[in-house]
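Handout, page 2. Input:
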Amino acid sequence: MDRKKLDLKLMCWLLAFVFVVPQLGIAKDKTVNPDKVADIKKLIEMTRLEDVVLLSSNKILDQILPMLKKAMAKNTPALTEAVFEIVRNTTMSLVQRQIWSPGGLVDRVVPIYDKHYTHAEIQALIKFYKSPLGQKVAALKPEITKEGIIVAEQWLKFLKPLLIQAIKMSLEKEGYLLVKKDQK
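Output:
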């Protein structure tokens, strides 16, 4: 089979950077009461963390794959849409498998819940999420997150020119002169 040469090493490093670097600050595991761990995992499942993570991962891929395509297009013309679809599907499959795998995301989030909530509070939250309102909150969480991401992106676009102007004014106030590069 004739395989087109791809700079997969670069592609993998970029994807790893996007998905791994944010994880570096995750809480380290400590000994937690096994019953509390089980309840925290039950709460995490009830609050649909997996759906939110998959939604967020898809959104990240929507943002980085076009940049990756553009950056690699000149040097690697063999990169087709099919290649990027394989990258997307493989990434999403791996992310989904790793959420509940031993040492995966859930195991890394448990200590955070343990740090901020008592076992009694976790049990109260589980009781809430079993109620009709709690079920509604959990059911709407992915959709609200999705809509929130869109609003946040729109807000960041709104802020960008304001931020540029504010930074420019602050720098000029401190005596810095900003010079535009010649566009040739």
